[in-house]
Write a structure and sequence with these properties.
By secondary structure, this protein is an alpha+beta fold. The protein contains three helices and nine strands, in the order E-E-E-H-E-E-E-E-H-H-E-E. The two termini are 16 Å apart.
Length: 118
């Protein structure tokens, strides 16, 4: 599959977040979906307390031709820089490198969500 170089448009960092929730595990999972959290983790000894957690995100908007798309590139940035976690400092470096052309996004023209960093 031949990938084509894309044009970087902008990057947004979303900090990690958590929320305490009381109820059943089923209700906690529904709340995760409703409020955009990634997962629910029990707190304590099965007393109905859960922590809803949203992981940090690095949302990148890029274009190929006249088609634009946005992807969460947090995992790709971690791998590219050899880091263990997503931080605001990492997202800033990633943004600077994308703007300067030190890092480029290459995507499948038929599926822009299928990308790689070079």
């Amino acid at each position: 599959m031949e990938r084509t170089k894309c044009n970087f448009v902008k990057l947004g960092y979303q900090a990690p977040d958590s929320l305490d929730f009381y109820g059943t595990m089923n209700a906690a999972e529904k709340a995760c979906k409703k409020y955009g959290y990634d997962f629910a983790k029990p707190k304590g000894n099965g007393n109905g307390n859960y922590m809803l957690t949203r992981l940090a995100r690095i949302l990148v908007v890029y274009t190929l031709g006249n088609v634009a798309t946005a992807n969460n590139m947090a995992e790709s940035a971690i791998v590219h820089y050899g880091k263990k976690r997503v931080t605001e400092k990492l997202s800033y470096k990633f943004e600077q490198d994308l703007e300067k052309g030190k890092v480029n996004i290459y995507a499948d023209p038929d599926d822009l969500s299928d990308y790689e960093l070079r």
